[in-house]
Amino acid sequence: MIQNKLHRICLMVILLLIHPVIMADDWKDLHKDLDKDFLEYVDTAKIDEATKKKHTELTERLCKIHEQGAKSNKVFEIMRYYEQFDPEPDVKLDLVLTKLWFDGLKGWYIASNTLISNLLLIDPEWSKEHQKTEDYFIDELPKKFKNFESSYYKDVGNSIDNYIVPYCDNLLKKSGKKYFNIINFKLLDKHDPITKLVSWFTKVEYYYNAFDYWVKELKSILPDNFPDVWLNSLMEYADFQKKFSKTQKKLEQLLNFYNNQKNSNPKALEYLRRLKNTQLSEYKKLDNKLRKILFSWPVIFYVAYINRQYNNADSLIWFDDRYTMRNAAMQLSKLTPFIPYLNEPTLKWLMETQRMFKDKFGEKEYADIVTESKLLPNNWADVFKKLTPP
Q1: How confident is the model at residue 355, as a pLDDT?
Q2: Residue 157 gets which letter from DSSP?
Q3: Residue 290 — very low, low, confident or very high, per pLDDT cuts 50/70/90?
Q4: What is the C-alpha separation between 335 and 299, in angstroms, rounded?
Q5: SS3 191
Q6: For residues 18-32, b (16+ Cβ closer than 10 Å) or e, as one string?
Q7: How far is CA 200 from CA 112, 137, 325, in A?
Q8: Integer Cα distance of 168 and 52 in angstroms
């Protein structure tokens, strides 16, 4: 019965994970609206030569960052590249600069997709369902784009593929390609903490699928002290949260500055305001996907393992193995700090397992077990100080 419940919970989590990373409508609509107005502005606006020169300089700077980021296979290297885009505050805010700011502030978005894409390598079937891009250049013009003229799209149709940037002329000529894609789902470096976590996941999953009674086989993979490979991955996740907060703070500073500038283009300013709201909602959606894989999935394995330990120690006809049960209860208690980050099915099963131990030991003894578990060595305390709950 417990194994069936595990399979049901795992299936629910997998269904939440395997669908492609699709942007929320407000995020997609924002890009569609901005790109349309941006291209019309470039085609029709009377831009003085000094401003054009500044546009060219900033565009070249950002396109170099696009190229560096697309070639990188290190998440935080990608984010650091995009942090370098920081025009002087005296540059007039128009639709060109707003478009560049949009793409320049997108390092966190590219990094989150790279993280998710690599985490989905835990299971090849998940990866097939996830949109992946082998190259950062594409040769064929997407059908949604029409009437390509000069270096810009005049008509962007009903939707926009905001992975593609049409303004990196020098980069495109140098590459011999027509269109440039800033998203690059490459495999992370083999020494990357996320890569190591995927390897650990794969090993755990193998034993869960291969054995009916997996306590002995899993003890080395799911030790009483949570493995460093999981801790290191959550440290990466904490850094990702920190980087996004830095991006949001930068956007707030930009809004405050441009609000006080008389020459700021009102439409460009409005797009920055919209970006602040949609960027936060999109971050929460991507963050939710990351938490499902980085928190809920390992906790599911641990709770299932603890259930199996309990069942093996529970005797219907003889004495219970109280030592094994007590140790399992302490390991369960150590999962408590993860509660704010868990999805609903995982949390529900964790709480049901806690009630199972309470019923077995009684409220008072179980409370003593929880207290005792807090005295165990905990090298995870610092990581939870760095994390921001949803």
Answers
A1: 95
A2: T
A3: very high
A4: 7
A5: coil
A6: eeebebeeebbebbb
A7: 20, 32, 26
A8: 15
pLDDT, tens only, 13-53: 443 443 333 334 688 888 888 888 988 898 888 888 989 99
Average pLDDT score over the chain: 79
Structure tokens at 355: 């009630």
Spatial distance between the Cα atoms of 264 and 362, rounded to a whole number of angstroms = 67
Is residue 182 within 8 Å of residue 103, measured between CB atoms? yes
Q: Which residues pair with 130 in a beta bridge?
A: none
Backbone angles phi, psi at 29, to 5 degrees: -65, -35
Distance CA 294, CA 343 (A): 11
Which residue is it, tokens 């936060």? 280
Tokens of 257: 């500055």
| Cross-strand bridge partners of residue 179 | 138
pTM of the model: 0.79
Residue 253 vs residues 55, 245, 250: alpha-carbon distances, Å = 21, 12, 5
Residue type, 271: Y
pLDDT per position as a tens digit, 311-341: 888 876 667 788 889 999 999 999 999 999 9
Contact 195, 188 (CB under 8 A): yes
Long-range contacts (CB closer than 8 Å, 24 or more residues apart) made by 50-54: 51/92, 51/94, 54/91
Q: Compute the CA torsion angle 344, 349, 351, 355 (nearest 10 deg).
A: 160
pLDDT at 130 over 60: no
3-state secondary structure of 295: helix
Is it the case that residue 65 has pLDDT exceeding 50?
Answer: yes
Structure tokens at 343: 């999805």
CA distance 12 to 342: 13
Which pLDDT value is given to residue 308? Answer: 84
Which H or E run contains 164? Answer: strand 164-165
Letter for the amino acid at 379?
N
Q: Does an H or E element contain 349, and which?
A: helix 344-361
Are the C-beta atoms of 335 and 230 separated by less than 8 Å? no
- Please give the residue that has the higher pLDDT: either 132 or 75: 75
Render 256-269 in DSSP notation, one character per residue.
Answer: HHHHT-TTS-HHHH
